[in-house]
Specification:
- The protein is mainly alpha-helical.
- The chain has a domain at 145-350: Orthogonal Bundle (Hypothetical protein af1432), CATH 1.10.3210.
- Helices cover 50% and strands 8% of the residues.
- It has 15 helices and 7 strands.
- The strands form 3 sheets. The protein has a 3-stranded antiparallel β-sheet with strand order 1-3-4, covered by helices on one side.
- Strand 3 (52-57) and strand 4 form a beta hairpin.
- Helix 6 (170-179) packs across helix 7 (181-200) and helix 7 (181-200) packs antiparallel against helix 8 (205-217).
- The longest helix is centred in the middle third of the chain and has 20 residues, at 121-140.
- The mean pLDDT is 92.
- Fe (ii) ion binds next to loops.
């Protein structure tokens, strides 16, 4: 394989301590053209699928330069990893445009770690945490999220911290990704849109936190529904449908033992398929019986699902999705809260 000369020279300069390397905190590095990637998520012995860069200061220590130190196709050598660690580097950088490629690379690494079983479990959860971070970052770049999506940064960082410290069950998100990758993306996207809408509505910080937890885990109960049922190409029969409709209750039961998950968040999960006209499930609650934020999660959940690509249909454009949300009715009236929908249209800046 061809060795990238420039990358090799840069590595030599680095390892002979001729380069001044800088590392910022993750939050300082949100907006730049380059994104950080922790060394732990680089797969030693595997070919890179994107270019990696060192963040350095020039001679006058004034300007930051990103120098390429590994190119696509080059194998990330285990020796580089130990040398980088020895000189105190914990992260390298990639170009933001490579985000989808980096996520795919991490997914490949995660599948290999999953195959290695128990011994690789801790490493797997660390890489998965980094993958989640990047999936959230990617969600922020999607136009269908509306212009306010970046207002969630503070809340997102809070929730990531709760996951990192084990207060919230990261392993349940791992179960979601294993069960159905599109359900994982859906969960992250609903989390982002619902949080941004809560901030837009100027809800209290603690209410935003409750919504964040509920939105991220709202469909965790689906991981307990057998894949044979979910993968059926034909319309579900009544028995299967009833089983699938148990997922809010199953999710509630899975999460209720976690002291970091407040009752408010659990209630939103339990009610996330309740409709405005009282025709939803689990309990067919009328609007006045529902938690005051259930309608928000209900609306965002459907909006995200409609504007996502499905194997059996293309993604609806935001405008067409809104039309469906405006018109969909149950036996006793409209399913979605129309006042909230008008605010949502402004939020999306349609
Ligand atoms: Fe659901």
């Amino acid at each position: 394989m061809e060795i990238d000369i420039e990358g090799q020279q840069i590595r030599e300069r680095l390892f002979s301590k001729k380069l001044r390397v800088v590392q910022g905190t993750a939050s300082e590095e949100q907006e730049k053209e380059f994104c950080p990637l922790l060394l732990r998520s680089l797969f030693p012995g595997e070919a890179l699928t994107f270019a990696i860069y060192l963040k350095t200061l020039n001679e006058g220590n004034k300007e930051i330069h990103y120098l390429p130190c590994g190119m696509p196709g080059e194998v990330f050598q285990p020796a580089w990893l130990s040398q980088l660690e020895q000189i105190g580097i914990d992260r390298l950088y990639f170009k933001k445009v490579d985000l989808p490629r980096v996520i795919a690379y991490l997914n490949n690494y995660l599948l290999i770690l999953e195959g290695q079983g128990g011994i690789a479990n801790q490493q797997k959860m660390r890489v998965f945490y980094d993958q989640l971070n990047l999936t959230i970052r990617q969600a922020m770049t999607s136009t269908r999220m509306g212009p306010y999506i970046r207002s969630t940064i503070k809340q997102v960082n809070w929730l990531l911290e709760e996951l990192a410290t084990g207060k919230l069950p990261l392993n349940f998100l791992w179960e979601i990704i294993l069960h159905d990758y599109s359900l994982y993306n859906h969960s992250v996207n609903v989390f982002m849109i619902a949080l941004a809408l809560m901030v837009y509505l100027e809800k209290k910080e603690v209410e935003c936190q409750h919504m964040g937890i509920a939105a991220l885990f709202h469909d965790v109960g689906m991981t307990r529904i057998p894949p044979e049922i979910l993968d059926k190409p034909e319309t579900l029969n009544a028995e299967d449908r009833l089983l699938v409709q148990e997922h809010p209750q199953i999710g509630f039961d899975m999460l209720k033992g976690f002291s970091a998950i407040p009752l408010e968040a659990l209630r939103l999960i339990l009610e996330h398929h309740e409709n405005c006209d009282g025709s939803g499930y689990l309990r067919g609650l009328s609007l006045s019986q529902q938690h005051r934020h259930t309608r928000i999660l209900r609306l965002v959940d459907t909006y995200e699902a409609l504007t996502s690509l499905r194997p059996y249909r293309p993604a609806y454009r935001a405008f067409d999705a809104i039309k469906i949300l405006r018109e969909q009715s149950g036996p006793r009236g409209l399913i979605y809260d129309q006042r909230l929908l008008e605010i949502f249209i402004k939020f999306l800046a349609l």
